[in-house]
Amino acid sequence: MFANNRELFDFIRSLVEKLDTIEENQWSSSFKDAMNISFMPGEVLGELRGTLRNFKETKFPKQLNVETEIEAALESLDEALRPRTMRS
């Protein structure tokens, strides 16, 4: 799990760089769009979670060797977006 949003966003930026390296422009653009969808943190986190969930089902996490980080990011996002009364 990521300790804070900064670590999560740094991971997403590094993922975008890896996707750009293999010229996977569709997913790269999807993550860039998710990061820039709003100034409201909850909206950005929600968009990232949806994009990561869809991305997880492709061949790219394994190809880029980021499967563990994807799981950690989703776990962090699920925790961050969980209603406060249900947080661990």
User: What is the CA-CA span between the terminal residues?
Assistant: 13 Å
* Tally of separate helices: 5
Structural class: mainly alpha
Indicate the radius of gyration in whole angstroms. 13 Å
Helix content: over 70%
Largest sheet: none
The helix/strand order is HHHHH
Q: Give the averaged pLDDT, no decimals.
A: 91
Number of strands: 0
Extract low-pLDDT stretches: none
Task: Categorize the overall geometry.
Answer: globular
Query: Approximately what portion of the residues adopt beta-strand conformation?
Result: under 5%
Describe the structure.
This protein has 88 residues and is mostly helical. 72% of the residues lie in helices and 0% in strands. The protein is built from 5 helices and no strands. Helix 1 (5-21) runs antiparallel to helix 2, helix 2 (25-35) packs antiparallel against helix 3 (41-56) and helix 3 (41-56) runs antiparallel to helix 5 (67-81). The two termini are 13 Å apart. The mean pLDDT is 91.
How is the secondary structure organized here?
Blueprint (H helix, E strand, L loop, with lengths): L4 H17 L3 H11 L5 H16 L3 H4 L3 H15 L7
In short:
The protein is mainly alpha-helical and 88 residues long.
